[in-house]
């Protein structure tokens, strides 16, 4: 098998029809600060598709994952609301408006939280391994894993190539936020890699060095459990604690403060509680020399890092050995950040040779940048051929998805609109059409009776 036939596919989440600004994510500064604004779901979905299309046109492998069914009427029913859909929505809006906003969240668009993936080259059984994240830290995200699991199993169905694991117990001890706290470092994608799991707290022996302002969403115990599920050995894993001061500054996931690709780790000096130990262990376990790109505090403050999402950029490998950094347009709006990109990162002794700026403002206002929107899956040529459905982006699929968005999405959504029963009907009509367009079968609750 040629190493050149093994590629990383970025599976981006489609921005959902109920994309709104409810400020649900405690500890996510952008989400909290934009709560109550009027959103534009159509613009958000088209911005996401435009990013996917531009990367596809540049030669990167690009996939698509569907949004979830929202509002989650089943969740309202489970929580005691009765009557017709219209009656439940009206009662929830009157009695528990925050709950209604939660069951309407379009947060599944940030597929970096969908789960954790181990490529077949690293797994003992030679299959790609998937564990959906339980996302138990917040109610609106806790609603996602069942559908996420069905979607992943529908697309990665072939048991010869793909292995699916159960969601970890949805308890604080095993709080798991998926690939947003996981980075695989390696030489070429097809070479054995080392898996860097970053956690915010220890559940069973914690209490020390934990954040004080915002919750730590990932536990060491969850990261260790996922590694065990996937058959990863001690020699293949590094577990590092995220700096608690970074979490308290709004770095709710590691991918807001660090991004890795191949042998490159681009990170802020406040990313890890024990920076030196983390780098030393990576160097000892990697078969390829680690290339750390450390951004110091004097270059980019924590405030600028969180506001710009510099480290929530996509870092992509090119055939010539260079890398491209895909940053949100907010990076251009912060002078210190843009100067650091131009005069430090691009000018440094590392493979990053190009920066591409993308407008994903609809997502950014809710606290998700380019890296939040994608789930990285390293696949061989045979594994790509084994995918079920029509989920690898090409010009025809892009055109079909754009037309689908233009047919079904609203261009204005206020939080008061979430109680509109017509919106719920519009969502079901659109999603039913989408599953046919993507040819992934019945993955939504309403399609399963």
UniProtKB/TrEMBL annotation:
Binding positions (substrate): 22-31, 113, 140-141, 217, 255, 366
Active site residues according to the UniProt entry: 177, 253, 372
Enzyme Commission identifier(s): 3.5.3.23
Keywords attached to this entry: Arginine metabolism, Hydrolase
Keyword Hydrolase: yes
Reaction catalysis annotation: N(2)-succinyl-L-arginine + 2 H2O + 2 H(+) = N(2)-succinyl-L-ornithine + 2 NH4(+) + CO2
One of the protein's GO biological processes: L-arginine catabolic process to succinate
Pathway assigned to this chain's UniProt record: Amino-acid degradation; L-arginine degradation via AST pathway; L-glutamate and succinate from L-arginine: step 2/5
A Pfam family assignment: AstB
GO molecular function terms listed in the Swiss-Prot or TrEMBL record: N-succinylarginine dihydrolase activity
Similarity remark: Belongs to the succinylarginine dihydrolase family.
Function, as annotated: Catalyzes the hydrolysis of N(2)-succinylarginine into N(2)-succinylornithine, ammonia and CO(2).
Protein name: N-succinylarginine dihydrolase
Gene: astB
